[in-house]
Specification:
Layout (H helix, E strand, L loop, with lengths): L8 H18 L4 H13 L19 H14 L5 H18 L4 H12 L5 H11 L9
Helix pairs in contact: 1-2, 1-3, 2-3, 5-6
Length: 140
C-alpha cells in the first residue's frame, strides 16, 4: 500500500480495509469475525489501526463490506502461486473423477434399486455396497 498514491483519507481507509480483509480471510477468519476485528481496529479498541488517518467516531464494517474488500484486493493484486494452486486443484479433481467413474449399467441398477418398493433401507444400502464397493469406506 506504500507504493500507491492516496488522494484522501477515505481512500486510504478503503485500501487498508482491503489489505486487512485479505490478510485475515487468508488466515482463516470468517467474514463476520474479520468485520468485527476491523471495526474494533478502526475504533481504536484493537491494535493495527492505520496511522495518520482520522476515522469517523461511528466507524463500522459489515461482513458484506469485508467480502467486497476481499474481492477488490484480489482483483488489484495478483495472488502469488495462484496458477500453481489451480493446476494442483485441477489435477486432484481429475484424479478423483477417474477413481469414481461409474458405468451406465451400474447407474441403471442403482436407479432400479432405489425405486424397488419391496426393499427396505438396510437392504438398499447392502445392494448399493455390492454395486459400488469403492463408494463405501472400509470402516462403514
Amino acid at each position: 500500500m506504500n507504493d500507491l498514491i492516496v488522494h484522501n483519507q477515505s481512500q486510504a481507509i478503503s485500501l487498508w480495509v482491503q489489505a486487512k480483509a485479505y490478510e485475515m480471510i487468508v488466515a482463516g477468519f470468517t467474514q463476520a469475525e474479520t468485520a468485527k476485528a476491523i471495526t474494533e481496529m478502526g475504533l481504536g479498541l484493537r491494535p493495527g489501526r492505520l496511522g495518520g488517518v482520522a476515522y469517523p467516531p461511528d466507524y463500522k464494517v459489515s461482513h458484506q463490506a469485508v467480502r467486497k474488500a476481499f474481492q477488490r484486493y484480489c482483483q488489484r493484486n495478483p495472488i502469488p502461486g495462484l496458477e500453481e494452486m489451480r493446476r494442483i486443484d485441477s489435477q486432484r479433481m481429475s484424479e478423483a473423477n477417474n477413481a469414481t467413474m461409474v458405468t451406465p449399467a451400474a447407474l441403471s441398477a442403482a436407479w432400479y434399486l432405489c425405486r424397488c418398493p419391496r426393499l427396505g433401507v438396510w437392504s438398499l444400502c447392502l445392494q448399493l455396497r455390492k454395486l459400488f464397493p469403492f463408494a463405501f469406506s472400509p470402516l462403514s
